[in-house]
């Protein structure tokens, strides 16, 4: 495992240590978990941005009148009695 040296304001570090103690962990563990999440989300973020870009350029629509069904109609099934 590699080591990392950070320069952090003394007050911020003290507050982080107190919060970490309250949560039963350490600042080191918090930073390690944050970096793991940060590094792992890159692919997800890029995929979401690409999906939004594709949606922006899509010609798909709900038609000229927009949505013509209600939520109840969408979930209406012939094998269930109607809601009362």
Low-confidence stretches: none
The secondary-structure class comes to mainly alpha
DSSP summary: helix tally: 3
According to DSSP, the number of beta strands is 0
**Mean pLDDT over the residues:** 82
User: Which of globular, elongated, flat, extended, rod-shaped describes the shape?
Assistant: elongated
Query: Helicity level, as a percent range?
Result: 55-70%
How would a crystallographer describe the biggest sheet? Answer: none
Q: Could you give the distance between the termini?
A: 62 Å
Topology order in helix (H) and strand (E) letters: HHH
Beta-strand content bin:
under 5%
Radius of gyration over all CA atoms, rounded? 25 Å
Q: What can be said about this structure in brief?
A:
This protein is 57% helix and 0% strand.
Task: Describe the structure in your own words.
It is a single chain. With 84 residues, the protein is mainly α. It has a domain at 10-57. Helices cover 57% and strands 0% of the residues. The protein is built from three helices and no strands. The longest helix is centred in the middle third of the chain and has 30 residues, at 27-56.
